[in-house]
Design goal:
Elements lengths: L5 H9 L22 H4 L4 E5 L7 H6 L2 E4 L5 H4 L9 H12 L3 E8 L6 H4 L5 H18 L6 E6 L12 H6 L2 H13 L4 E6 L6 H16 L6 E9 L5 H13 L3 E10 L12 H18 L7 E6 L8 H6 L16 H7 L1
Parallel strand pairs: 1-2, 1-8, 2-3, 3-4, 4-5, 5-6, 6-7, 7-8
């Protein structure tokens, strides 16, 4: 899902700290026949998927929004300078249309998962701008009216609030952010356009830098409609107060809020085999419910929805990426509902 960041290592170091709180109220076992998750809430409830998930009943019955986790990223959709690969993206778009699901596409511009030709591109600033415009415009125009929202820029800031060094900043300058949104808007004026980033809930300097730039650009007429608040969190971190405060700051600044990549870890940094207990699952369930309930309280005009970053624990990015056990999603590896799911439809 991501490249390796020191801030993620820091986040998971903090997961080992003990939680001091009362025991959560037990959540009873349920099944997916009782109620559809997206019908339980009046905002979109989404999930990140890959093409094989289009035949998974849980995706069909429980979610009304989908985000392709990889297939719109540059290395997959634009593998060669003069060649776009549409097959998997088309499949996901067609699935969304056929099943009346919103499609929030991820992501047009990022510093990771780039094709080799793009990393090695040579030319002047204007050449780079033209290349970026061609990349964005070609993709967005193809899905005009079919993709409702785009993550235009992904993870442009470092933890200290400065812009992340990448090929776009190096060859175009900081204006690449503004231009990317403009190019996407020109290609589909009706699409909602988002900036997406991580650690906003516990890195105040980074959060302020993101909000300051996005607000400034918006005041200048740049079409930025929302901010994606990635939420790869745990049962104990960040604090509830920090999480809710960040939601408030984003919406108070006038942006739609997308809880864009939600999963809740039950493990710490330990790579040793550990026993998944009912207490862990109950705490995870309580945290999912806390986030959903508080998201439901924000003004309707700012609700873009919540997207769970994966269908089942067996497909989570965390175990492969960090080399340790974890069970961060709503369904177990066999697609059975966990207390986290049951707590949300209660």
């Amino acid at each position: 899902m991501k490249s390796l960041y020191l801030n993620y290592r820091f986040l998971y170091l903090l997961l080992s700290y003990p939680l001091i709180s009362c025991e959560p109220e037990p959540i009873e076992v349920c099944n997916t026949d009782q109620q559809s998750l997206y019908q339980r809430y009046d905002f979109p409830v989404g999930v990140a998927i890959e093409p094989p998930h289009t035949t998974e009943p849980i995706v069909q019955t429980q979610f009304n929004s989908i985000t392709p986790s990889n297939r719109f990223k540059p290395e997959f959709i634009h593998p060669q300078e003069k060649t776009f690969y549409w097959h998997h993206a088309d499949l996901l778009v067609d699935y969304a249309l056929a099943n009346e699901k919103r499609l929030h596409a991820h992501t047009l511009i990022w510093h990771e998962q780039l094709p080799i030709w793009m990393e090695n591109f040579q030319g002047s600033k204007s050449d780079w701008e033209a290349m970026m415009k061609h990349h964005i415009s070609t993709i967005v125009k193809r899905y005009k009216g079919k993709v409702q929202a785009w993550d235009v820029i992904n993870e442009a800031f470092l933890e200290d609030g400065t812009l992340r060094p990448n090929i776009w900043l190096k060859n175009i300058g900081s204006s690449y952010i503004e231009k990317a949104f403009q190019y996407a808007h020109e290609a589909d004026p009706e699409a909602l356009l988002f900036y997406n980033d991580f650690n906003l809930s516990f890195r105040p300097t980074k959060r302020k830098a993101v909000l300051d730039l996005m607000t400034n650009l918006k005041l200048r007429g740049v079409p930025i409609h929302g901010i994606g608040m990635q939420s790869h969190i745990s049962t104990i971190f960040p604090s509830d107060q920090d999480f809710i405060s960040t939601m408030e700051k984003i919406t108070q600044a006038g942006f739609k809020l997308h809880i864009s990549e939600l999963d809740i870890s039950v493990n710490s940094i330990s790579k040793e085999k550990f026993e998944l207990t009912d207490e862990m699952l109950q705490r995870q369930a309580q945290r999912y419910r806390f986030i959903f309930n508080n998201y439901q309280r924000i003004e309707k005009q700012y609700q873009h929805g919540i997207t769970i970053w994966g269908v089942s624990d067996g497909e989570s990015w965390i175990p492969n990426y960090f080399g340790r056990e974890d069970y961060p999603l709503l369904f177990d590896e066999f697609f059975n509902p966990k207390p986290a799911y049951c707590g949300l439809i209660k």
